[in-house]
Design a protein that fits this description.
Length: about 325
Amino acid sequence: MDVVSDAIAAIRIGQPSSNRVRIAGTWCSRLASYGGAGFHVVLEGTCWLLPDGGPAVSLGAGDVVLLPHGTGHVVANAPADPCTVRDAVPFEAWLEGGGSRTPPPAGAPGAAELLCGKYRLDHRHTHPLMAELPDVVHLPNRVGRQSELRSAVDLLGREVGAARPGSDVVVPGLLDLLLVYMIRAWMDEGAARAGGWPAALADPVVAGALRALHKDPAEPWSNELLAARVGVSRATLARRFTALVGRPPMAYLAWWRLTRAAGLLRSTAEPLDAIARRVGYSSPYALSHAFSRQFGTTPGRYRSRSAAAPVAG
């Protein structure tokens, strides 16, 4: 897979959940901090997002916001004062009390329609690309920008809550697309910044090296072989890769091989020798030794604990 796909797959578990909410008047609802990632799509109207410890964000129709680290927050019809935020109704109780079952008439004061949801993520082995995302990723609705994201929002707006044939398959798939498009949009917006993963994946040398490592982590890579693959000298590759990724190529490869092994242990029943071959270790013993050094537990114990105590969410 490519780097972004791998970064998502490394922490993605279960299926996303979502609720379509219509509300009007004066309202204020709290969503507690969460072990995954939260998101909101404003389908109609306007509202405010008030993240814990962060500035208020004004949201308009077509805006999308991602909270990739599960930051607790409030959504409200106005930039609420501290007292109102403190007394905000928990989102689950708000839904049960009619927040989504008594839709206001069109044009009602303070009316808004939102798609609110969560992605289940296992943050134990977060890829640095995902870790680099800010607490709040606000993607305003702008004409001519992020057409893929806009299309996903439009499709979700038509599907969620409509009870159409096949919706149980369509909606989770669209929510998965939404996550990818939100991350792509953040990367596109940040590609011009100096440093970081948007810049790394916009650099042809670094991006080419990353694609090669992710496409086949089991290849017996060396700095010489990787530099030859992307057509530069060892020194050039090492300098550009380390500056943008934050670690040298072979150190990144070693980390990714173990992270990939952890994902396979968590999500498959493959024997350890098969996993070792898939991620580039010569034997189960070699993988077990490196895994224990990196994560402080053996692969077998890691697999058992993952099965016995799934990530909350």
